[in-house]
Each structure stands twice: as structure tokens, then as C-alpha cells.
Write a structure and sequence with these properties.
The structure is a homotetramer of 212-residue chains.
Chain A: H1 21-45, H2 48-55, H3 59-65, H4 69-92, H5 98-115, H6 117-129, H7 131-154, H8 163-183, H9 192-206
The first copy, chain A, binds a DNA duplex (21 and 21 nucleotides) through helix 1 and helix 3.
Protein name (chains A, B, C, D): TetR family transcriptional regulator
Keywords (chains A, B, C, D): DNA-binding, Transcription, Transcription regulation
InterPro entries (chains A, B, C, D): DNA-bd_HTH_TetR-type_CS, Homeodomain-like_sf, HTH-type_TetR-like_transc_reg, HTH_TetR, Tet_transcr_reg_TetR-rel_C_sf
Chain lengths: 212, 212, 212, 212
DNA sequence: AATGAATGAGAGTTCATTCAT
DNA sequence: TATGAATGAACTCTCATTCAT
């Protein structure tokens, strides 16, 4: 079920040129440094100097691997998207019932946020800095959701509803709760009682009219 | 029930000094210009030059009324917060049943977004540029919600649940749906079928277990 | 007979904005500094830092008055063009016979080169850096020549010939002799014997067939 | 009559080391690439990357054959000088009378310019980039002229005059007319009427007083 | 109250050259 | 002989802020 954009592209240099092993290492170092720096300072206050310093390479080296500051950012957002989706899918696959998979998926998402607060902030900046890629990001997560929702509806496990709308609602909840209780909160994860409240709301929202 | 931060503060100059009538006019012009410029270019690409040009004053004049670029931005976000809450409350007050008020509140929010897409973008930038004020923004909206939810729960109109968690869920849904169907969408408002789907989910989520 | 491009344009800032007295002074300082720096280092090795240092202003100040390095250069070339033509015309106007005016014009040109070797080098660079403006430069000088040549032909003082072609020949000679004997030469001016040789060639070249 | 600097020097590597066949091929490729790149972009905007890309070798390879960017440029100018002189001489040798040789020489020069506009631009840049070599360039052409002029004077074919001065005048005319009518002009060569005008001026200029 | 000239640090980016393989 | 990664200084240009009038 994996689509083309799930595939991790082979790393290449700024002109699309192939890389030696050494080149791959440097590129990775730069990408990781960029991730950290963007997260800490935000897109605009992240500078190439800071990134190259963090990667321990000279300024010019940056441009051997990326065409511009914007380009690394874009790549980072796409990369993050792949990783979030992977994390969620991996977790939810372990559940045996539909509801359990739902819970595990959310848990997986919150854990991901807790582990990569850096990346979370990057996504949020994309609204201004790379709007197209942000939409792509949401679309992709949405598509994954829609699939599962359709199956569950067909099986009568959840009520009939427009799966696309529902998918955006679920994303919304995940993102906001993640921000409020993981990023801004004091604890490292969404507290159990809050999590239960959230899942309660979601389950009722998804339920066939008349049960829940 | 209005709290202190609901009150529109009397405008003052950069040093907190009182303003003449002329001063008030200039300040207002600058604030409006800033709003437009921040919305169009984003925080970082908005420059003082652009703002003062739009306000038709000299560059130096800016600093007679604001201490820094950051400060105008903060003020703008706070101002926007007041306006959104006002718009929502005004609308929902016109409903007679709880569910109707809920619907009207959401409608009000989406209309506000449609009319002020500019301001919506400003809020989103605040995540990076003025995180404290952004949290303040959400908290205030949350508090308004919580009030209403508590009353409704007491009246048995909706199910028992942690009203704070629910309030954040409602905000999440409003914001994401607003972005997806109003800002990025082709239409000027959330299409009726989508709106119904959203409200359906919300009503089920809020419902007492066993009804809906 | 002065044309529009002979008129010295009122100095203005980068955005075309009007200048205060102080502004005019700074602009002039920058222009003079640019002239010196371009001449000494050539277009590419002339840097804004060097120019602003020479003008004793901060780097940013440069951009209050000029939009780019290229723009100052263009302006400088145009300015120089005005000055060369003025110098030549002024000198040649003092002559009483046609041949004398010819000699005085050349003398004026060589003197100008001797006094402004800086500007001479700037012109030469224009070939690469601002080719359109360079052609403009030659065209304007040519036009001035053509006028005088036509009159002289009508009066039978020189032979019939295409005045435009002749004008380019005269420019060519002036420029090359100026480079060879003034700029690269040891003396500060074209030695008398060389000058006489040059004028001899020119006079014969201009002469009506059969005399000289 | 050929002098030492007419001899095409055996190609060698950066340290003056001898080259294998393969080395010679690489070096030639670089030189040709450099010619094209300098001509298209000008000295400063020509980069080693562009040159090595055009030559299809790696960046580092450049420095196996040349010590610096400047050095290739110098070599290119010298090479060009050889070729222009060769082209002119070859053409003028075909004439039977002195005047005919004169015409053919000019024609040859203009044709060369038309065929190698690229190289023409390189020469012009040398004024700033490699002034000494530019003077060398003119000197060499001048010397060739002087020879011929002296012979013609001795034979009474042209008037007595300082042959050096005359040679610079002739170069001046060739260069300017070439620029004006070949490079900037619409046609591929100097139009016949212009050419006749030019040669008329030159012949009169060279003539013994009293004839022409 | 208002102007606009001036500042200067810092941004992203380029490029001739060197070095390790 | 050839590669291509790495360097780092230098470049042009922007902009929030201050200052003199």
C-alpha cells in the first residue's frame, strides 16, 4: 500500500550529483544539524552559519548539498512527514480491534511529538515558510486515515460519515492535544486522564448513531 | 463576566506617554498598516519600512508609538484574540437551544476566518514569533468555552466530560476545518455538507453516552 | 543645441525620493568615492565596503542613494560622458578656423584623459559591465562630431564623406592615442611630435581629394 | 621574420612539468572551454566550475594544468594575439599592390572579428584584468605594421610619417570599426560602403602630401 | 509630533583554491 | 592523472533601530 512518496529518496548533492560515502556522511550531518537549528531558532533565525557550525563543516560546504536554506527546510518537512506516518502506522498495526488501533495510533503520534518536539515546531512554521509542502503533509496523513475509516465503515465498526472530513478532524485533535499537553505541558506525554477524555470524544464522534 | 484582558487598553506612545488626538490617529494608522503588512508578508518579511510606507509616515515615527517590531506584533495578536472571541460570542448568543448556539458559534468563527484570512495567518505565525501570546490566545478561547460547557453539563444537555479537554478539542476542529475549507479551499465558507459532517461529529462527541 | 541627455539630472535617492541638503552631500561623497574606487580596482574588485569606507559612511548608507553597485557604475559612465563632451566642446569653441578647432578638440580630449585617468578606465570597463551605456556613450560623442563635420563639408572645408563613419574614426584615434601616450606613456600628455603626426593623419584623412 | 613570441609554446602542466598525450588532450579541452566561458560570461563571471564543467573534467583537474584563473586568461590573450596577426598577415600577403594589401589586411581583421566575436570580447577585458598583456598585444600588432609601413615609405608608396604613430592609428580604426559595425551591427561584416569610406580615410591619411 | 538620514551587524550565497583519496 | 569534497574569505544587500533636526 506504500505510495511513491513514501520512498526515501537516494541522497544527492545540490546539482543532483551522486555522492561518495564521505559526501553522504556530510549531507546527513548537515540535515541533522538543520533539524536541530530550525527547531531551536525557527526558520528565520536559523542561519546557515549556525547550521554549518552545528554540523562542524565550513559555510560553503552547505551549498554542496543544498541549493538554499529553503530547500533544506522543505526536505526536512517531507522527511518528517514520512517519519510521523511511519510511527503512527507502526503503532496502530499492533492493535487487534479497531478501537484499539485508533488508541494506539494516537499514542504513537503523541510519543512521536514527545520525542521530536523539534520537528513538531518545524511543521508549524511551514504554514508561512512552505505552505504547499504543509498542505501536502496534511493531505498525506489524511489519505492514510481515510483508508482505514472506509474499511471500518464498511465493516459497520463506526458510523457512516464523510471519511475525509473525519480524517481532518482527527488530525486536528491530535495536533492540538499534542501541542497543549505534550509540548507546552509539564509532562512528557499526554496524561492518562486527558488521553481517555480525548479518546472518549473521538469514539463517540465516530460511533454509529445510537451506540457508544 | 468580562475579564481584565478583555478591556481594550487606552492607546499610548512608546514610553507609555499619553497621546494627543493626532497621535492617536497616527498610532491607529500604524497598527492597521502593520496588520495588513504582517498578514501579507509574514512576520519576518514584514519590515518597518513597509509598515511605515503603508501608514504614510516616516520610518522614525514608528518608534514614537511602538518599542519594537515584536511589540506591535504582540499587540496585534491580542487584538485579534479579542475580535475572534467577540465575533463568536455575538453569533452564538443569537441561538435559542444549546445545539443551535454551538452551530452558530462555529459558523461565526468560520465567517470571521473568511473575512480576515489575513489575521488568521498572523495567529499561526505566533507559534514561533510570540509563543506565550499564542498560548494566551488559546487559553482565553478555551476559558470562554469551558464556561458554556459547564452550564450545559449541569443542565444535562451534554454528557459529563472534562470541559477543558473538550474545549481544546473544539478549538482544534474549528481551526483545522477553517484552514482546510475556508483558507485553502476554493469557496468562501465551509460548504454546507462539510459543515454538517463536522457538527455531526461534534454533537456525537458531546452527547451523553447512549443518546445522540 | 543641447539635448535632453545633456542636462544634469537632479540627484535623488534610491527610491527616487527627494533629498535634503545633507542627503545631497552624502550622495556626492559616495559618487566621488565610487569614481575613485572603480578606477583603482576595476568594477569587480571595487566593493561596496571600499566605496563606503572611502566616503566615510556606513555600508547601509550606500543603499539609501543607489540601488546597486551596477547602478552607480551606470551613473558614473553617463556622468563621465557629459564631462568629456563638455571638455571637448569648450576647448574647440575657442578655435577660429576649422582645423584649429579640430586640434583644440583633440587637445581637450587628451587633457581630460590626463586629468581623469580614473574615468577613462571606467569607460573601458563598460564594454563588459554596461555595454548598452557604453554604446550610448560613443553614440553621443559621434553625434556631436557629425554635426560639425556636416557643416565643414557644406562649407567645403573638408572633403565629402560619410560623416558618421568619419566620426567613429576620429573617436577611435582619440581613444587609442590617449591610451597609448597619455595613460600608458611616461608623460602627462601626448608629446608634441606625436600629436602633430596624429593631426597630420587626421587632416589628410579629412581633406578634399587633391589638396592637403 | 618571426620573433620568439610568435612560437607556439609546448604545452606543460602547472608546475611546468611535461605532459603525456592524455594530459595534452585534457589541457586543450580546458583551454577551449576557458575560451568559450570567458567570452560568454566575461572574466569575472567565468568561474572555474563553469570551465571545468564545459571541459567535462573535475574541478581539481584545472589546477593540474594552470596555476590560476588569471594564468589561463593570460595565455588565452596571448594565443588570440597570435591568431589575429596570423589571420591578417595571411590575407594581406595575397595582395599584389600595397593598397590592396592594406585593404585585405583590414578585411582579414574584420572577418576574424566576425568569426571570433568571443575572442574580441576577451581582448577588451584585458584592459582591466591583464593590462600588461594587453599592451603586449597592441605592441606586437604595431610592430608588424611598422615593418610594412617603413618599406612602403622607403618605396615612396606612402608619405613620410612616424610609422609607429601611424600603426597605432590603424589599429585604432580597425578596432573601433570592428566593434561598431561587426560586433554591435546587424550585419556579419562591415558593409561595403562603410568599408570604402574607412579605406578612403586611411588611404588619404597615408598618402604623400599632394596626391591621394 | 514628525522626519528621514545614518548606522552596522548579519543575512544568504559564491568561488578560487587546496586537500585527501 | 584525476577526482570531488572541503574550505573560508569575500561579496552584495537588508533591516531594525537610533539620532539629529
Amino acid at each position: 500500500m506504500s505510495t511513491t512518496w513514501d520512498v526515501d529518496p537516494a541522497p544527492s548533492g545540490a546539482g543532483g550529483r551522486a555522492l561518495t560515502n564521505r559526501g553522504v556522511r556530510t549531507r546527513t550531518a548537515l540535515l541533522e544539524a538543520a533539524e536541530a537549528v530550525f527547531a531551536e531558532h525557527g526558520y528565520h533565525d536559523a542561519s546557515i552559519v549556525k547550521i554549518t557550525e552545528a554540523a562542524k563543516v565550513a559555510q560553503g560546504t552547505f551549498y554542496l548539498y543544498f541549493e538554499s536554506k529553503q530547500q533544506v527546510f522543505d526536505e526536512l518537512v517531507r522527511d518528517l512527514n514520512r517519519r510521523v506516518r511511519h510511527a503512527m502506522r507502526e503503532r496502530s498495526d499492533q492493535g487487534s480491534t479497531r478501537a484499539e488501533r485508533e488508541r494506539l495510533g494516537f499514542r504513537g503520534y503523541f510519543e512521536f511529538v514527545a520525542e521530536h518536539p523539534a520537528l513538531y515546531r518545524i511543521i508549524r512554521q511551514a504554514e508561512i515558510v512552505a505552505p504547499d509542502i504543509l498542505r501536502e503533509h496534511y493531505e498525506r496523513i489524511s489519505i492514510g486515515y481515510v483508508e482505514g475509516l472506509r474499511t471500518a465503515m464498511a465493516a459497520g465498526e463506526i458510523g457512516e460519515a464523510d471519511p475525509e472530513v473525519v480524517s481532518w478532524i482527527l488530525m486536528a485533535i491530535g495536533e492540538m492535544v499534542g501541542a497543549r499537553w505534550v509540548l507546552w505541558g509539564e509532562s512528557d506525554t499526554v496524561p492518562d486522564d486527558v488521553f481517555d477524555q480525548v479518546m472518549g470524544f473521538v469514539e463517540r464522534g465516530l460511533a454509529t448513531r445510537g451506540d457508544a
